[in-house]
Design goal:
The chain has about 1000 residues and is of the alpha+beta class. It contains 23 helices and 52 strands. Among the domains are: about 35-205, no CATH class; about 240-250 and about 260-295 and about 380-460, Outer membrane lipoprotein wza domain like (Outer membrane lipoprotein wza fold like), CATH 3.10.560.10; about 305-375, wza like domain (wza like fold); about 465-550, Outer membrane lipoprotein wza domain like (Outer membrane lipoprotein wza fold like); about 655-730, Roll (Outer membrane lipoprotein wza fold like), CATH 3.10.560.10. The strands form 15 sheets. Strands 22-21-25-23-24 form a 5-stranded mixed sheet, covered by helices on one side. The protein has a 5-stranded mixed sheet with strand order 27-26-32-29-30, covered by helices on one side. A 5-stranded mixed sheet has the order 34-33-37-35-36. A hairpin with a 3-residue loop joins strand 16 (about 315-320) and strand 17 (about 325-330).
Length: about 1000
């Protein structure tokens, strides 16, 4: 402890007013930002922001661990199938997409495992080594010594770091939750993850993406993001086209009344047959192809000529010529309109085109030479009924132009247990029409979208037989059958066909057998033509689920080349293709290629790789023995010389401008190395340079080099060729060795740089500078020395290293027997200390030496008249007119000096004390840099003094006291920096 405090005498802290903060208990909340819309058990739709972690109790998560990346993830117990528990169903790792048979990880048991060897990468050398440790050490953080550098660091295995936190995500296809650990909060949301259920890759920030930014299945097909597993999260076809809220009101329904569907609970039964949830992701219903904006007010749009008029329609008649008039005529309850001069005219049941002729003929009986235009105004409303499995059954008033689909759309459509293929339209005259909307939805055929008449009723029957098709087809969904069966070929056509990545050799069908059990059978089609020829004979029945897997992501028929070639990459494997052909395809090797060996990596028949060496030089010289024929997935790597041949170095030290280590190049001589070092200094001697050379198996040689002969063209043989490890030492002339450069600035007659002889003292150089001026403030002379600055840096490094080692040990003990609140406070304290230590390491030091300067006659020969060193600098300031007050006062500033005034006067001028002032800790920094503590009222304040008002330091730990001791030095350094800046 004493050593540390002494070290801090030359270490400054980093803010004058800084005090350790009061640490609050801040628990990091990983809020799930996914917006999801789900139907609850009360059959009501609700929008919920975020994935609520409380929905799943903490002990109801099932933990898995990936065998490849060794990271853990969790899924709710309710979503863990029996097959997963038995290890017969694959799970997808969210981190790297690996599909594996799961094994449950119980972390409390893992921590009790026997010690094991762990592969660790040195944070300093980036080289790997093994260390034997138990899981408890891994979890709490073990302090390990790096075998390469001897430095200590703390190692915690990434998969079980206590500070890593769980993040709840929602699988975008089926809405099921899972949890992953967030190892890097900065990169979270920048890296894609996989759904453990179907392998679909998505970004955690996907909920903020617009639909155009999200990858479609077709885009994923080209970006190598094809899901490994087939998602069963398919929806019933056609039902998403209808809006959730009705656009018109039922007859007798109050405007403010908000009724909810009675069929929502039944909907889930249909979906449950395929293991699906009725979740709407993205926080709102996906925008359907039949957008609400397409349905303008039907009562005001133009009508066709065959529109039949009836009571409630309005006609707009414009007349011009001999008569100028605009008429707006309503067809009354008897089906008549009143024309001027003409009187009543019956139009009930008359087509619109015929009505125009009738009006013109009747007006022509009373008027001549006129023109007429007839158009429809507001259309009449008709009363229709919708019954059965509709979301909003009842009686409705709709436009006379409305069709069956218009009405279904406006009233939110059928429920999910209602049919889209067996809708019955009953006319007022008792005739019936059977409607199948699949032709309309799939082909755009509107022939069955009948126009409604007053009194019509629509009956939505219960849904018929259904089959599902999932995976790699254009439109995966649940489809209703027109009868009880459908052929495989018809189902594929309905689903838009198999996508390009669909795998035909294994189409799997799940079937409910005799209402007793679910069975699985596979269909194998050699190619697309075989599928087309035979699939019509394969009949599917109610409840079948067809799953089309994707082709394996492995690419075929290519070879690769990498390394020192013009165009690295993958190339088509052509028949008879050889290594030379591949190099030519890559446009040849580049400069610097290593010709003695290239490597061909090849898969053996047992799926392991072998390395085949290739002599590239002989190959390029057309030696066919090296020109091997290539096989699928071969990979040729061409090395650069620098990768294979080690780089050798030579060193030069002494009187050159850039001493150091340089790369040894071919035919490099001594003169070349001197040139690389920017040449000789003017202090260099041309005699007695030395070349130190090590020879294997012999004693090292020291060769005397005459530099004068090296630079003489007539004696070029003296300029020796260099060898690996050679070191050259250039000596300096002794007459230059004692030279010292001194910088004097401020209040002397001739400020500037001066050369001091060995043993010369400060007073002698001041005399040579003409002495002090009349305005020189001698008590404030600032003397700075390089060697002191260097010593300060050494002590800072020693202190920082010892503190960092102490912090590592403290961090490793945090997980043991500490409450959450105490552990959080300790972590915050450690972070603060680390920040202070980093600031110490990066700080600019000055190297001030406190000396007392008097007039030259008194100063010369005194104890403060120091012998000068090279690089010393002296700054003589002007006589100050103020006293500085800094620290915990309301207005820290410079106060005009008044002889005889005490400390209270200057503190009051600076606004007075703030809260938490340590009055006993007030101290004075004199202009010379000397600090005087334990200030008393009797102490005299002098011109140029600085009054430091510290804050009460609340932390009484040994480390806290060390940082408190550093506060006074902080102030000294700050005052020195300001003073030097003022002089210069």
């Amino acid at each position: 402890m004493t050593r540390r405090i002494l070290a801090l005498i030359i270490i400054f802290a980093f803010t004058v007013n800084s005090a350790l903060p009061a640490f609050a208990q801040n628990s990091v909340e990983l809020e799930q930002m996914v917006r999801t819309k789900m139907k609850d058990m009360s059959k009501q739709d609700r929008v919920k922001d975020g994935a609520d972690e409380q929905d799943v109790p903490e002990d109801s998560w099932h933990t898995f661990i990936c065998p490849v990346c060794e990271k853990e993830f969790q899924v709710p117990d309710t979503d863990v199938t029996d097959e997963m528990r038995k290890g017969t169903e694959e799970v997808i790792c969210p981190y790297d997409g690996t599909a594996f048979i799961p094994r449950e990880i119980a972390m409390r048991n893992a921590l009790k495992q026997e010690p094991e060897y762990v592969n660790i990468v040195s944070p300093y050398e980036k080289r790997e080594f093994k260390a034997r440790m138990d899981m408890d050490s891994i979890a709490s953080g073990a302090v390990i010594t790096d075998p390469y550098t001897g430095k200590k660091f703390r190692y915690i295995k990434q998969t079980i770091k206590p500070e890593d936190e769980w993040k709840v995500l929602i699988s975008p296809n089926d809405g099921r939750k899972f949890r992953i650990r967030v190892f890097n909060k900065d990169n979270y949301s920048k890296e894609d993850v996989s759904s453990p259920y179907d392998g679909d890759r998505f970004n955690p920030d996907w909920q903020y993406m617009s639909e155009k930014d999200m990858s479609s299945d077709i885009e994923k097909m080209f970006s190598r993001e094809i899901p490994i597993a087939v998602s069963k999260a398919i929806k019933q076809f056609g039902y998403d086209l209808f809006p959730e809220k009705p656009q018109i009101r039922r007859i007798g329904e109050k405007e403010e009344e908000k009724e909810e569907s009675d069929e929502t609970g039944k909907d889930d039964k249909t979906q449950a047959r395929f293991g699906m949830l009725q979740n709407k992701l993205l926080g709102e219903s996906p925008r359907s192809q039949f957008d609400e904006g397409m349905y303008t007010e039907l009562s005001t749009i133009p009508v066709s000529d065959d529109y039949v008029l009836g009571p409630g329609d309005k006609l707009i008649i414009n007349l011009w010529g001999n008569i100028q008039q605009k008429l707006e005529l309503d067809i009354d309850g008897e089906g008549k309109v009143i024309l001027p001069q003409v009187g009543p005219l019956s139009l009930w049941g008359v087509k619109f085109s015929e009505a125009k002729k009738l009006i013109e003929e009747n007006l022509g009986k009373f008027y001549t030479n006129f023109q007429i235009n007839v158009s429809m105004g507001k259309l009449r409303s008709i009363k229709v009924f919708i019954l059965g499995e509709a979301k909003k059954p009842g009686a409705y008033m709709v436009s006379s132009l409305a069709t069956v689909f218009d009405l279904l759309y406006q009233v939110s459509g059928p429920s999910k247990i209602g049919t889209l293929r067996r809708i019955k339209l009953t006319r007022a005259n008792k005739t019936e029409e059977a409607i199948d909307f699949y032709d309309y939805l799939l082909k755009g055929d509107k022939s069955q979208d009948f126009k409604l008449d007053s009194g019509d009723s629509i009956f939505v029957a219960p849904i018929g037989s259904v089959v599902g098709i999932a995976g790699n087809v254009k439109r995966p969904a649940i489809y209703e059958l027109k009868g009880n069966n459908i052929s495989m070929n018809e189902l594929l056509e309905t689903a838009g066909g198999i996508s390009a990545v669909g795998y035909l050799q294994r189409i799997q069908v799940e079937r409910i057998k005799d209402h007793e059990r679910k069975i699985v059978f596979d269909l194998d089609f050699e190619n697309a033509q075989a599928l087309k020829n035979t699939s019509s004979n394969i009949m599917l029945q109610d409840g079948d689920l067809v799953m089309i897997s994707a082709v394996a992501p492995v690419r075929h028929n290519y070879v690769s080349i990498a390394g020192n070639v013009q165009r690295q990459g993958d190339y088509e494997l052509k028949p008879g293709m050889k290594i030379k052909d591949l190099i030519d395809e890559a446009e040849g090797v580049t400069q610097g290629a290593y010709l003695d060996r290239a490597e061909l990596s090849r898969f053996r028949d047992d799926k392991t790789r072998e390395i085949i060496p290739i002599n590239l030089g002989r190959l390029l010289s057309k030696d066919e023995t090296e020109n091997i024929e290539l096989k699928e997935w071969d990979r040729l790597y061409i090395f650069t010389k620098s990768e294979v041949i080690p780089t050798f170095f030579v060193r030069i030290e002494g009187a050159v401008y850039r001493p150091g280590e340089y790369e040894l190049t071919d035919n490099m001589r001594i003169s070349d190395l001197i040139f690389r070092a920017s040449g000789l200094k003017k202090t260099a001697t041309l005699r007695n340079a030395e070349l130190y050379r090590r020879v294997i198996g012999k004693e090292p040689q020291v060769i005397t080099v005459d530099l004068a002969s090296i630079f003489d063209p007539r004696t070029k043989e003296s300029d020796l060729y260099l060898q690996e490890g050679d070191q050259i030492f250039i000596r300096e002339e002794t007459k230059w060795l004692g030279t010292r450069e001194i910088d004097i600035s401020g209040q002397v007659v001739f400020p500037g740089k001066y050369m001091a002889a060995p043993g010369e003292r400060l007073s002698a150089v001041i005399k040579r500078a003409g002495g002090f001026t009349d305005k020189a403030f001698l008590p404030g002379v600032i003397f700075i020395r390089r060697s002191v600055e260097k010593y300060q840096r050494q002590m800072i490094k020693k202190f920082v290293d010892s503190e960092q080692e102490a912090i590592l040990k403290e961090e490793s003990s945090l997980a043991i027997n500490l409450s959450d609140s105490l552990s959080t406070a300790r972590r915050e304290m450690i972070k603060y200390r680390q920040k202070q230590l980093q600031a110490m390491e990066s700080a600019d030091l000055i190297g001030r030496v406190v000396i007392k300067v008097d007039t030259l006659d008194k100063f010369e020969g005194s104890a403060n008249d120091v012998e000068l060193e090279d690089g010393d600098s002296i700054a003589i300031p002007l006589v100050p007119s103020s006293v500085q007050v800094i620290g915990n006062v309301y207005a820290p500033n410079a106060v005009t000096f008044i002889e005889g005034k005490g400390i209270d006067y200057y503190i009051n001028k600076a606004g007075g004390f703030t809260k938490n002032v340590d009055k006993k800790g007030i101290f004075i920094i004199k202009p010379s840099g000397e600090a005087i503590g334990k200030f008393t009222q009797a102490m005299k304040i002098e011109r140029g003094d600085t009054i430091i008002v510290p804050e009460i330091f609340k932390y009484k730990t040994p480390t806290g006291l060390i940082f408190k001791d550093a506060f006074s030095f902080t102030s000294q350094v700050l005052v020195t920096v300001l003073a030097v800046a003022a002089v210069r």
